[in-house]
Amino acid sequence: MEDFQVADDKIKGFEQAKQELQKILGEFDHDQVGLDTLVGRLKRAKELIEFCTKRIRQIETEAKEIVKTIEPRESSRNEANISKEDAPF
């Protein structure tokens, strides 16, 4: 019987979490999860999903912040180009 301890299994990163979640889902798809380990596997899957969701939100927030720093520069550049094109000389 497999002793599954959710708290002791540290998640190292998004890719590792995704791979482990895919493995668990594969076990469910192929009826490889016994009754004795079912609850533990479900808890671990929940933990992995929560980790991935949180990480995706963090990355999305960081990406939006980066884009905000780029957008003003791009619009200023476009305005400068328009002004030059509109100039008669």
Range of helix content: over 70%
Tell me the span between the first and last alpha carbons. 83 Å
Order of helices and strands: HH
Multimeric state: single chain
Radius of gyration: 24 Å
**Beta-strand content bin:** under 5%
Overall mean pLDDT score?
79
Write up what this structure looks like:
With 89 residues, the chain is mainly alpha-helical. It has one domain (14-86). Helices cover 76% and strands 0% of the residues. The longest helix has 52 residues, at 35-86.
Task: List strands and helices in order, with pairings.
Blueprint: H1 14-29, H2 35-86
Helix pairs in contact: 1-2
What is this entry, summarized?
This protein has helices at 14-29, 35-86. It is an all-alpha fold and 89 residues long.
